[in-house]
Every structure is written in C-alpha cells, then in structure tokens.
UniProtKB/TrEMBL annotation:
Superkingdom of source: Eukaryota
Protein name from the UniProt record: Amidase domain-containing protein
InterPro entries, A to Z: Amidase_dom, AS_sf
Pfam families in the cross-refs: Amidase (PF01425)
Every Amidase domain range: 56-309
Record lineage: Eukaryota, Viridiplantae, Streptophyta, Embryophyta, Tracheophyta
Length: 491
C-alpha cells in the first residue's frame, strides 16, 4: 500500500504540475470495436448502422456467460434485456431515439431496485423473491433516457454492513479482481467495478456510503464518481444511512461516467429533502461541458499529508494538513450508521409489496436459520446485531452528528476555503471517510499498476457541488496519462 501511495504521488507530481500550465493530450482515434467500446463509440455505431442495441446486448451477455463463472461480478441478467434492446432499435429506425444512453446496456448494483423480473436483494438470500413497489429513482431516469437494464451486479452483501469479505454475497459468491485474481476487488460495489473493467457491460451503477464506489473503482482500474449526497436519488435503493448514501456511475472512462451522471441527477419527490437541497448544484447544460483536456489548467490542488501516512505529502501548492483532529471519526460514523441503518432498512422493508423479511430482526433470524449459505461461521453478522440493539436517534447519536459536522467544517471545508483549493488529491479511496461524513463528492481515476499488476488510482475530492471542476481535472488527468488497460486475469 505504501508502494502504491508513492507511485500515486509520482503520477500526481509528474502530470498535474505539467498540466497546470499546459493542455492535455489529444483524443484517441481508431476503428469502432465492441471490446472496450465507449458510450460515444456505441452511439456512433448506432448512427452509422454498424451496431444495434440487440447486437450489443448479445455481446455483453456472451461476455457474462464466458467470464462470470470465474469473476462472479453479475448476480443475474435481465430476461427482458434483448426485448428492451429491440425496442430501442425500433425507436432508432423511427427516428425517435435521443440521448447518450439510448439503447446502451447498464448493469446495476443489486441494491438498486427494478420493478421488473429482476430481484433486488443486496446480495442476501433473505430478500430473494421480494417485490419492490417501483423502480429506484435512478432507474426511472435511466429508463427515461432509453437505457437497457442488462442485469444486477454482485455487491458485498448488505453493502458490507455485516461485514463480509469484499465482493462476497450469499447470492453471488466471491467477486474476483480481473487484473490479479488473488487481489481484492474491494467493495461494496465490487460487481459493478469488475463488470465494467472486464467489458461485461457498457456502463454500471454503484452506491457508496463510505468508499464503496471509490475503492472498487481504484482496485479494478475504472472511473468511479461518488456524487454529492442528494445529487442522485436514493429512493428505491437498499439503504445504510441517508446522511452518506449516494448513487454513482462506474465506467471505463471519465466521459462515459459523466454521461451516466447527466442521466441520473435531479429531484425526486421520494427523496425530496436531499435531492431538493442538491438540485442547486446541477449546472445548466449538464456535466459533459466540463470534459476538457485543459481542465487542470489554473487549478489549485492540495495533497493533504494525512492521506500518505507519515510520508512527505507531494503537493502542488504547498504542504497541507487537514487542521482538525478526526481520530474519532470512525467511532462516530459507526455509532450513527448502526442507528440509521436500523431505521432505514426497516422503512425500506415495510415498503415492499412482498418480502420474506420485514425487519432487521427478521434478517438476523434468517441468517441464523441459514448459517451455511450465509457463511455465519466465517463472517458472523456483528454489524447487523449492533444495529438491532439501537433505539433511534437519541442524545449520543445527536452528539455524534454534531461532531461529524464539526470535523467537516473545521477540516476539509476550512482547508479548501483557506487555500482556495479546487480539489484535494489522495491515493485510491484513502480520503473516502472524510468525503463521506461531509456528503462530499469524489472521482477515482486509474493512475497505474503496481509491480504485481494490481491497479491503483488517484481520487479528486472536493466540497458539495464541486463536480464540474472535479470532472475537468479527472478528464484532463485521464487524457494525459492514458494508463488504463484491459484486465489480464493474472493468477
């Protein structure tokens, strides 16, 4: 890990300092190919008649059939995916298509509800056969954009709120890293990250509470956008905590991720408070306008030393420290998660049209009745049990909320405002907790591979609503470095 941090520092120093005063690289050219196809290339194929949605879906279904027995990235495929693709092709022939995602297959993390023949289970056998009342808010937006719902991707079960091995669920088994099979795929959005990396879908959606997009994106050499909390709706998503949960794209390129982000942001009456508050951050004209190869020019970027664990922080502006003590961040975050998970999961379960379980206590009892399938001997369920013992938001929880707000205000917010920073940069998902407790955005971008071939990334993080400038920097960095390569499946 230290070796990776030093490599990230070298990349940051070598690229950002050069691009701060100059433009980036040129865009690649080449013939259209299904393997590694971008959203732009797919749409070009649709327009010039060299590709259909049905052919694209068949390609990804073949990829899943070939690779999933090894990688375990996909829990189930949508039996209606080909029919949706055929409908998109018919719309295109009538001239009725429009938008970057029309006819494009999307894999969803298995905590994102779909009102169709797919299950939504967070990887748990306890929710198998449950029936959701409606599509999740982000799924409704994807359907409105004409996207094809390809299937569900494997999460760490209950989004790692048991916890379990990263990328393992009772339904999906153990997801493997496609670059080095023995390396962690990280989680909890392991399946989406691996599926995107291994060309099992055009684009994928994950969710993050603390690191669950940024970490698997870093580990699997894909781009992950963790949006400002409330920028994307959480309605219909199996929850952990409304203070931190957010839904975002995990794709092979920054451009693809941004096109997905454009499609899924916006107000949702079923997540009214959060989406209403964050809607002010959505720029007129959307986010694709910030895909600029000179996006690092003139930016002020800090690399806080705390994220390099005692190493001298490589800095673009000056040595920076987050000038607040946040050694108690994890304890406060955990205390709140326990209480908020119980409230949130019970509310989610009560809204289901049918479910084998109706409460957190039912889930715990189900696991106890199925110890082999749920691997209780290996993982137990300590987080679930701790959450069940809570009794709502009381004095301790309110004090924890105040403390986390204080950590954010006196920490990252103060640092960025005092130094007029556009972003901080950290290795992989090392800044995830600081970003999580403040509801702040981050973008992970592939930055290289270690001597074993394991991917690593850099994360551009900022304050709420900083997505435009983070996209500019992430895109410029990606275009200048072009380090991402397809998986090697090294044993």
């Amino acid at each position: 890990m230290v070796d990776q941090r030093l490599q990230v520092v070298a990349v940051v120093m070598g690229i950002i300092m050069a691009l701060a005063t100059a433009g980036g690289g040129s865009k690649p050219s080449g013939a259209f190919e299904l393997e590694e196809a971008t959203v732009d290339a797919i749409q070009l194929g649709f327009r010039n008649g060299t590709l259909t949605s049905a052919a694209l879906v068949r390609f990804y279904l073949d990829q899943i059939a070939r690779l999933n027995p090894l990688l375990r990235a996909v829990i189930e495929v949508n039996p209606d995916a080909l029919a949706q693709a055929a409908r998109a092709d018919a719309e295109r022939r009538r001239g009725a298509s429009g938008g970057a995602l029309h006819g494009v297959p999307v894999l969803l993390k298995d905590n994102i509800a779909t009102r169709d023949r797919l299950n939504t289970t967070a990887g748990s056998l306890a929710l198998l056969g449950s029936v959701v009342p409606r599509d999740a808010g982000v799924v409704a937006r994807l359907r409105a954009a004409g996207a094809v719902i390809l299937g569900k991707a494997n999460p760490s079960e209950w989004s790692n709120f048991r916890p379990v091995e990263s990328g393992w669920s009772a339904r999906g088994g153990q997801t493997l890293n496609p670059y080095v099979l023995s390396a962690t795929p990280c989680g909890s959005s392991a399946g989406p990250g691996v599926a995107a990396a291994a060309n099992m879908a055009a684009v994928t959606l994950g969710s993050e509470t603390d690191g669950s997009i940024l970490c698997p994106s870093s580990a699997n050499s894909v781009v992950g956008i963790k949006p400002t909390v409330g920028l994307t709706s959480r309605s219909g998503v199996i929850p952990i905590t409304p203070r931190q949960d957010t839904i975002g794209p995990m794709c092979r390129t920054v451009s693809d991720a941004v096109r997905v982000l454009d499609a899924i942001v916006g107000y949702d009456k079923l997540d009214a408070e959060a989406t209403g508050a964050a809607s002010k951050y959505i720029p007129r004209g959307g986010y694709t306008q910030f895909l600029r190869v000179d996006g690092l020019k003139g930016k002020r970027i800090g690399v806080p030393t705390v994220f390099f664990q005692g190493k001298h922080g490589a800095t673009v502006i000056k040595d920076l420290d987050i000038a607040t003590n946040f050694t108690d961040l994890y304890d406060k975050e955990t205390l709140l998660m326990n209480a908020e998970f119980k409230l949130s999961i019970n509310a989610y379960l009560s809204d289901l049209l049918h479910s084998p379980v109706r409460s957190l206590s039912d889930i715990i009892a189900f696991n106890n009745k199925h110890p082999v399938e749920e691997r209780l001997k290996d993982f137990g369920q300590p987080d679930l049990i701790a959450a069940e013992k809570t009794n709502g938001i009381g004095a301790r929880e309110r004090a924890a909320i105040r403390r986390l707000k204080e950590i954010s205000a006196n920490g990252l917010e103060k640092l960025m405002k005092e130094h007029r920073l556009d972003a901080i940069v950290a290795p992989n998902s090392d800044a995830s907790s600081v970003l999580a407790v403040g509801g702040y955005p981050g973008i992970a971008v592939p930055a290289g591979y270690d001597k074993e071939g394991v991917p690593f990334a850099i994360c551009f993080g900022g304050l709420s609503g900083y997505e435009p400038r983070l996209i500019e920097m992430a895109y410029a960095f990606e275009q200048a470095t072009r380090v991402r390569r397809p998986p090697t499946f090294k044993r």
